[in-house]
Amino acid sequence: MTDETVRTPYARKIRYGVTGAPILPSQNPHTGDMAVRPSLVELVYSAARDGRTARVSASVTGLCMRDGKPVQPEGQVALHYKNGPDGWPAWLANEARLHAAAPPVTDPEPRVPLAEHTQQTLDELYDRVQEADAYYAEAQHVAQAMYRAWNEQRTALTEGATVAAGVHNTLLVLRIRLANSSRDWAQNSDDAWMYAVLYGWDCEQQHDHTPTCPKLLNEVATKHGWTPDRVERIRKHRAVFAKVGPNGETDAAARRAVDNEED
Fold first, then answer.
1. Would 120 be classed as within a structural domain?
2. Rounded distance between C-alpha atoms, residue 157 and residue 238, angstroms
3. Boundary residue ending a domain (56, 79, 98)
4. Confidence class for position 2, pLDDT limits 50, 70, 90
5. Is residue 3 part of a domain?
6. Which of 58, 73, 98 is at the close of a domain?
7. 122-146 pLDDT per residue, tens
8. Total domains in the fold of the chain
């Protein structure tokens, strides 16, 4: 039975994960200044048909960013780009061009029927086969080296994530202990310094601050005679701890989650 099916390719899609990519801004006026740090890219190449030219669209998923910082609580968002790659952010446009379909491969030389080969042409073909085997062995060696490097990197990332989780949990235990202690942490200079770095005297919620928001670091600094330079160093230390561990915003997010469950 003859297969008379006519198949017309309309589109080709490629989907892959990325790390180390630059932050991409949104091109949708309704999303404001939202941006994304890419972790997943999906490209769709649509063929020209029905009077429309060939085109490419993209969906980029990753960490939601504003002003170069992750939006708290951290979450994944997807930004969509159409009618590219011209006019897209440079990195994404290069990705689209990189993965565009290659032109059809053509036979570089006419095929000679076996009966027309001579000893010389057969020797040449044999030499080319040996060269191809050598290239294959070299490519296999390179692929194995790349796999070993990737596996080492994956192991290092896994170990790093385990350490980061341990640091976060340790800081969380310390934060809970400080919050629930009856000790007056502002009374003693050393206690006040430790509280400032591990817990924070000022409001850390990601919102429009109001007069009721805690803002006590300057007051504590005045009480203990801390210099402006020391206060600045304390703020830098606290910023590091707030980035790698729990902070005022994560506390507020946890409270909101509990409130929503009760409602």
1. no
2. 25
3. 98
4. low
5. no
6. 98
7. 888 778 878 877 777 777 777 787 7
8. 2
Does a structural domain hold residue 1? Answer: no
CB distance 24 to 36 below 8 Å: yes
45 Cβ contact list (under 8 Å, min separation 6) = 11, 12, 13, 14, 54, 56, 100, 101
Give the whole-angstrom CA distance, residue 245 versus residue 109. 64
Q: Is the pLDDT of residue 92 over 90?
A: yes
Name which of 3-12, 47-56, 98-107, 147-156 the model is least confident about: 98-107
Query: For residues 93 and 85, is the Cβ–Cβ distance under 8 A?
Result: yes
Which residue is listed with tokens 């341990």? 166
- Name the pTM for this structure: 0.39
Decide if 180 is inside a domain: yes
Domain range for residue 255?
168-262
pLDDT attached to residue 227: 93
CA angle 139, 17, 96 (to 5 degrees): 85
Please give, one letter per residue, the 3-state secondary structure of the chain: CCCCCCCCCCEEEEEEECCCCCCEECCCHHHCCCEEEEEEEEEEEECCECCECCEEEEEEEEEEEECCEECCCCCEEEEEEEEECCCCCHHHHHHHHHCCCCCCCCCCCCCCCHHHCCHHHHHHHHHHHHHHHHHHHHHHHHHHHHHHHHHHHHHHHHHHHHHHHHHHHHHHHHHHHHHHCCCCCCCCHHHHHHHHHHCCCECCCCCCCCCCCCECHHHHHHHHCCCHHHHHHHHHHHHHHHHHCCCHHHHHHHHHHHHHHHC
- Average pLDDT (166-181) is 81
